[in-house]
Amino acid sequence: MLTVRNQPLGSIATIEKICPERVPLCLDLLPALSGEDTTKSFFQELVNILLSYVCKSFRRSSKVLDFHHPHQLREGLEGFSLELPDQPENLEQLLVDCRDTLKYGVKTGHPRFFNQLSSGLDVIGLAGEWLTSTANTNMFTYEVSPVFILMEEILLKKMQEIVGWSEEEGDGVFCPGGTMSNLYSVLLARYHFFPEVKTKGMTALPRLILFTSAHSHYSVKKSAAVLGIGSENVVVVKCNDWGKMIPAELESSIITAKDQGCVPFYVNATAGTTVYGAFDPLNAIADICESHGLWLHVDAAWGGGLLMSNLHRVKLQGIERAWSVTWNPHKMMGAPLQCSAILVKKRGLLKDCNQMCAEYLFQTDKHYDTSYDTGDKTIQCGRHVDVFKLWLMWKAKGSEGFESQVNKCLENAEHLFDKLKQRPDFELVFKSKPEHSNVCFWYIPPSLRNMSPGPERNRRLHEVAPKIKAKMMEQGMAMIGYQPLGDKVNFFRCVFSNPATQTEDVDYLLEEIASLGHDICIRAETDL
Ligand code: ABU
Asked: What transmembrane ranges does the database entry give (predicted)?
């Protein structure tokens, strides 16, 4: 059997059998004449590598990550080189490169990966992603993506119906992530109130102001910066202790902005904040938007998944009053990255705002209904097919399957919350039951347990989570995120969106943190 750097690679030998005279190269693959067999062998071997990775991703005995510092990966590890060659590498080497790429990556589908809002490895979603890449087409016109365009229409309609919009309302597109979806919302709101901006630019406009909460995603400020409104024209509205926007603060900020001669036009409310998982009071915010005539956007990138659950959708009451909604199925619904929708209540606005009528692409004299050439509704030209994997998952699970998935993630969060309440070595960031699947907490090492609250304890506590995380990443058996927020020093944020995670994984995480943190010694300020 052929080996590459002493690592046997099974069916690579098949490739050699087909081309015994030399080690095969990519030139031996299709479209080479008689390249079919070599291509099949190459793909069979690749599929073996991918399947082995998929199986390992679910195995608790396997590591979540095999961490190396950037300089180590750059220098090359056990023959895995990132450098680009002048001469072609052979197919065996390419397969080893594929295997090593996965080996040194992070298994975001592992049941003990708690680091990101998007996690899990949905096997049907993965199949959908493979098919999508195989089709390798573009979402801009019906002529090159007839099936995917119709799937997008059907998915968007379904999501709009779940949000609670009527038959006559609703438009949207899938776009590359929640930040882009939020960007669309600001762009559309501005165009709705000031359509002349499309041709005249900002010079034709008054000083516009938008509003978002202190706990909202940074993409709202980024959108203002990108769109020439300016991040300083984003008013950050105060939140209560649980991270929810305070409606009275919103109203007084709007009045203040008007008194200053500015023009408020847009409010972002968050359904599921990034760190706390908080839900803004949507109905109260919608009332204020209505009375001031402002565009209401709901960023439900993270919380949108809860709409699938009859038990939890009540937390998004009022979302149907939004003028636009961001909803990322690649988060709580477990679709492979990327899968984010911007839903827009007013039909036709996306097209009016973004259309440029490029004649080489969007000819009006095509022989089919060109309203299905949806590309001109977007700010991109080429657009990845993000819909098929979600469509296939929906077929496979039904809406009920997503509901149980979401419910299970929230049950895991409740389990963690209950465990934390019982343990003297952990402290919850707040005592109330989590609304979403975010659970925020500190680990208190023995050396800090008897310290009285105050700046010195906070200074030391701030160092605990990063130290534990560093050790955890070196060991590679679990992964969780941390951050400071407001007046709170670094704390862990555990999030559940992976249906593979069981309560035993939650228990494991706590034990892992406690064992990695037990002997942590943070020096007193006087010793520094
Ligand atoms: N807002 C993007 C996702 C952030 C996170 O996974 O923590």
From this structure: none
The upper half-sphere exposure of residue 396, i.e. CA atoms within 13 Å in the direction of its Cβ, equals: 16
Sheet architecture: strand order including 439-443:
113-114, 479-485, 488-494, 439-443, 426-428
Look at residue 7 in the predicted model and tell me its pLDDT.
47
| Position 260 confidence tier, pLDDT thresholds 50, 70, 90 | very high
**Cα(116) to centroid(ligand 1), Å:** 6
Out of 114, 117, 182, 326, give the residue to mutate to test ligand 1, the one with the largest number of ligand atoms within 8 Å of its CB: 117
Q: Which helix (H) or strand (E) holds 237?
A: strand 234-237
Among 114, 116, 436, the mutation site with the greatest number of ligand 1 atoms within 8 A of its Cβ is 116
Mean pLDDT of 21-31: 92
Indicate the SS3 state at residue 349. Answer: helix
Cβ pair 332, 406 in contact under 8 A: yes
What mean pLDDT, rounded, does the chain reach? 95
Angstrom distance (rounded) from CA 76 to CA 263:
55
Find, among 187, 89, 381, the residue nearest to 195 by Cα.
Answer: 187
| CA of 301, closest atom in ligand 1 | 1
Q: How far is the CA of 206 from the centre of ligand 1 (A)?
A: 33
Q: Give the integer Cα–Cα distance in Å for 61 and 80.
A: 24
- Check: CB of residue 341 under 8 Å from CB of residue 326: yes
- Residues near 195 by beta carbon (within 8 Å), at least 6 away in sequence: 352, 353
**In the predicted structure, residue 173 carries a pLDDT above the cut 60:** yes
Distance between CA atoms of residues 278 and 264, nearest Å: 24
Ligand 1 lined by 132 (C-beta under 6 Å): no
Burial class of residue 528 in the structure, from the number of CB atoms within 10 Å of its CB (0-12 exposed, 13-18 middle, 19+ buried):
exposed
Q: How far is the CA of 414 from the centre of ligand 1 (A)?
A: 21
pLDDT at 125: 98
Give the pLDDT of residue 6: 40
Whose alpha carbon is nearest atom 3 of ligand 1?
Answer: 117
Q: How confident is the model at residue 527 (pLDDT cuts 50, 70, 90)?
A: low
Task: Tell me how far apart the terminal alpha carbons of the chain are, to the nearest angstrom.
Answer: 59
pLDDT at 5 (0 to 100): 42
**In this structure, are residues 279 and 314 in contact, taking their beta carbons and an 8 Å threshold?**
no
Cα gap 496→136, rounded to integer Å: 32
Query: For the chain, how long is the longest CA-to-CA vector?
Result: 82
What spacing in Å lies between the alpha carbon of 282 and ligand 1's midpoint? 22
- CB of 297 within 6 A of ligand 1: the answer is no
